[in-house]
Predict the structure.
Amino acid sequence: MQGGLIKQGMPSLVFFTMLDPAMAYETVALATAWQKRHPGVQVILVDTRSNPEDVRAWVRREGVTVAVIADEDDAFEEAFDTNRLPILYLLDERGIIQDKIAGNSLERFIELDQVLSWAAAGDWDSVAAQRSEWLTVGEVPRRSLADVPLGQGAPTIVYHTSPFCDLCQRIVEEGLQEQLNAVAGDYPEVNFIILQIADTFDFEAFRGQVETFTALYGRAALPDVLLLAVERGRLPDVPAVPLPLAGWAENIRLINYTSHDANDPQRWWGQPLTPALMLFDSQGAYQGPLPIWEGPYSAQALEQVIRGFLELAEQSENE
C-alpha cells in the first residue's frame, strides 16, 4: 500500500484501475478531486494489473495523497469478486457495498459528486434510491426497467445493442434480424426485447456535461479525447447503423432508449457493454450470462446461446 493510509469505520470509494494512460478516467487528478471535495469519504485506488514497483514509482512521482493498493496477490480482486476495469465500489462505515459503477460514463461521474456528499453525511437512503441494482443470477431484478416486463409466465430474452458499436454492427450485418426471427418463430410464447440506445447525439448536452465535470473535478481529470472534442465542436465521425424498425417477429419488441432514461440497462442494471445479452426465466429471475455475455460476438453465436437457454428452460418446465 502506498500514498494515504486506509482508515477503519468511515465510508470508502474503492476504485479499481490501472496505470494505463489509454484508460479514460484513471488519473490521480480525479481521485484527488474526489478526496478533496469529500474528506468524509476515503478514496482508495486499487491496481490489479500493473507491476507493483511501477505503482510505487508512480505514487512517488505524482505525489499521490489518496491510498493506492498494488494488488499483487489479488486479495482485493477476490474480495470484491471482480476483474472489470474501470469499476468503483462505494462502501459504508461497516464495509458494506452501497453502490457501484462500471465503465466511465460522464453522467455517472457527475452524479457521483452528490452521492459522495450523501455518503459523507451518512444518508444511505438517498444513495440507495439512485444506485444501479446489478443483476444477480437466480434473483428477480430489484429495479425494473420501464418497458421490460419480466415474470409473465414465459422466459424473456433481452438483447442490448448500440448503433455506434462496431461489434453490434457486425452482428447486424451477419443477419441478426433473421436469426432472432427464426428463434422467436420457434418459441412464440417467449418475449424477446431489444434495447437500443438512440442513434441521435445532442452535442450541446455533451458540452454541458464536460463543463460540469470540469467545474467539479478540474481540467486535469478530463480525458484529452473529450476535451479535444469540445474544442473542435464535434465528436469523431462514427457511422451509426440502427436496427430496422420493421420486419420483426410478433414476439420481438424493439425499444429505443436514451442514456439514463427508465429503460437504460447500463444505468439501472449495471450492464456497461454492448452487445449484451440478458436471459430471464418464466418467473423473471436472471439466469445469466455471468458476469456478462463474453461472446463470441456473432449473430450465429447469439442464436445458439439463446436456443441453448430456451431448450434448458423447456426441459426444466417439463420435469
User: Anything to note?
Assistant: The chain has a mean pLDDT of 86. The first strand starts at residue 2 and ends at 3.
